[in-house]
Design a protein that fits this description.
Structural class: alpha/beta
Strand order of the largest sheet: 2-9-8-7-6-3-4-5
Shape: globular
Strand content: 15-25%
Largest sheet: 8 strands, mixed
Number of strands: 14
Order of helices and strands: HEHHEHEHEEHEHEEHEHHEEHEEEH
CATH architecture of the largest domain: 3-Layer(aba) Sandwich
CATH class of the largest domain: Alpha Beta
Length: 381
Amino acid sequence: MFSSRLKLDLARNPLSRLLEEKRSAGAKILDLTESNPTRAGLIYPENEILEALADSAALRYEPTPNGLIQAREAVAQYYMERGRTVAASNVLLTASTSEAYSYLFKLLTDPGDEVLVPRPSYPLFEYLAAMESVNVKQYPLRYDGAWHIDFEALERALTKCTRAIVVVNPNNPTGSFLSVEGGRRLEEIAARSGLAILSDEVFSDYAFGEARAHPFSGIAPVFSMSGLSKIAGLPQMKLGWIVVDPGHEEAIERLEWIADTFLSVSAPAQVALPKLLDLSRGIQQQIRERTAANLNLLRERVKNSTLNVLNVEGGWNAILQVPRTRTEEEWTLALLRDRDVLVQPGFFYDFESEAFLVLSLLTEPITFAEGVRRIVDFAAS
């Protein structure tokens, strides 16, 4: 009866079952996995956001496949403020970054083709690709005090069916930016193999220190993605975009045709976009201060313990290396069962080895501090 494209295992994992049991019993859980900015105690400029959404222009329906021009110009301005020249004509709006992936898979692949994605990374790619009848192959990120792409392994993963390479910049959850040298080598491989690069840059505004996302040189076709979910901390606005490198007009035309089939982006979000991007500065500042403070606290608390915080350059997560005296599943279950602390195991993100826990730096500070204290105490017990 159902499509074979999604091989879903609907059984809940032990961690989700234990979490439901604890909450049903009335336990107060310290959730260190919170990634929804609207539930993280941030102060939003409510009146200004509501005013932007009340524009009467949203009452008119203009079925423009690539998005309203004023919205695309606002995206171009966003990039200009970050030192990158983008033409509004090279911007195509989508309802989300996930939809952007869907469009790009439709554009670049046939059923049975392959895309390369990083490992570890956010566990959404396999589902997005499966819904387009596309196969995912992974290329590893290695850690030696800093994260970097294993390019030899990436090249070994290439086959005649490979159509694109996904790079998340900075990566989620490792928080690692692609270096200038790494970007150049990635482009050379893509150009030599006739592949596109899909650059997911949703966390690029959240760097620690001087790390940043460097522009590509243009020797291979690059499709950049981002959106309001992370840039403005407004996932409910459902607006993202694709930026197509100059010189790929046919790709833009084909993407417009795909978008015209769905016309999924709402008018109110498009009309409000210039103002929402302007308001994002204050929201981003709160998030940067929150994530930096939580990261500093975590590093300080694990000193002189058996725990280790891996180097992170940006994003909203931190990776905590824990002793291999337990598996990651045992660590997360024991922390939830015995200390009422919820964290994510590394295998949720396809870490190749154990034992790692992933903590959200977006968590409210009081909750984060108490949760980290309990983790350190538990590790020492």
